[in-house]
Amino acid sequence: MDKLSLQNPLFAAYAIAATLMILKAVGMSWLTVVRMMTERGGFRSPEDLQKTPLNPAPSPQQLAPNERVERIRRIHLNDLENLPFFLVAGLLYILTGPPLLLAQALLYGYVVSRLLHFAAYLSAQTHDLRATLWTVGSLILIFMTGRTLFAALGY
After folding, report:
1. What is the pLDDT of residue 71?
2. How many CB atoms within 10 Å of residue 152?
3. Which of 12, 124, 131, 144 could form a disulfide with 93 if both were Cys (CB 3.0 to 4.6 A apart)?
């Protein structure tokens, strides 16, 4: 069976986890736009102050930082800083042929940690809680990359 086939349960688990994380990251872009439109602010570029059907009453104040919009941007930036590592580490890890149950626990555990991190960040929970959730995902990445490195070295 081809390792990079959806017929391979390991690759299918990776594909599910990776797809969910990609959709989450793309969703953050949409959430940013929705938040800017509902807040009628938090815009970043001077050309955003042009009168348009979506912005019928532009105001220079719309370029001022808006905490509700900035919170979504920070969550999105956090995804962009973390998800590429997961996408690569997860793929390399499943190529080592780990036990299916362990791979599913790690891949889906990462997804859950990122979704909980999102919920904690969106609801303005403490840094300690966010850091704990981030740490869970980070430890999963460290384990997967360490296992991949050992496998590549022949151990």
Report:
1. 95
2. 11
3. 144
Q: Which helix (H) or strand (E) segment is 127 a member of? A: helix 127-152
82 located within any domain: yes
Q: Which domain holds residue 94?
A: 9-152
Greatest Cα pair distance in the chain: 65
Closest CA to 103 of 24, 26, 18: 18
Residues in the chain: 155
Are 42 and 65 in contact by the 8 Å Cβ rule? The answer is yes
Q: How many domains does the chain have?
A: 1
With beta carbons less than 8 A apart as the criterion, state whether 22 and 76 touch. Answer: no
Helix, strand, coil shares of the chain as percentages rounded to 5? 75, 0, 25
What phi and psi, each to the nearest 5 degrees, are found at residue 9? -60, -30
Sign of the C-alpha dihedral, residues 1, 148, 101, 139? Answer: negative
Q: How confident is the model at residue 17 (pLDDT cuts 50, 70, 90)?
A: very high
**Is pLDDT above 90 for 67?**
yes
